[in-house]
Amino acid sequence: MDIDKSKILNNICYTELVYVRINKKLKTSFSKKDIEKIIYKLLAKTDEGNFMKIGKNYYATNPEKQIRVTINSNNYRIITVDKL
User: Fold this and answer.
1) Which of 54, 58, 75, 76 has the highest count of CB atoms within 10 angstroms of its CB?
2) How far apart are CA 42 and CA 30, in angstroms?
3) In the chain, how many domains are there?
4) Contact 80, 68 (CB under 8 A)
């Protein structure tokens, strides 16, 4: 299955809770705007070969930064970010 990285980048969105979850998981205190910029840049720099769809989610793994972003494949909402 081909994954359209540009469609993901153009449609990503966030909930209020995910900002808190991202800061907690990464042990940071970024603003909402900073989180959005960081996630966008991270996904843009992640090779399309490192995007996987499993079930209803996309998983974008950036080996350089050792971070995986989980994205809902139906609405492109960021679910969480994990350090690897």
Assistant:
1) 58
2) 15
3) 1
4) no
Amino acid at residue number 49: G
pTM: 0.93
Residue environment code for 59-75, b if the CB has 16+ CB neighbours within 10 A, otherwise e? bbbbeeeebbbbbeeee
| Helix (H/G/I), strand (E/B), else coil: 84 | coil
Q: What is the pLDDT of residues 30-64, one digit of tens each?
A: 999 999 999 999 999 999 999 999 999 999 999 99
The two tokens of residue 68 are 């995986």
> What string of DSSP letters covers 13-75?
B--HHHHHHHHHHHT----HHHHHHHHHHHHHHS-GGGEEEETTEEEEEETTTTEEEEEETTT
pLDDT digits (tens, 9 = 90+) for 10-35: 999 999 999 999 999 999 999 999 99
Range of the structural domain that residue 49 is part of: 5-83
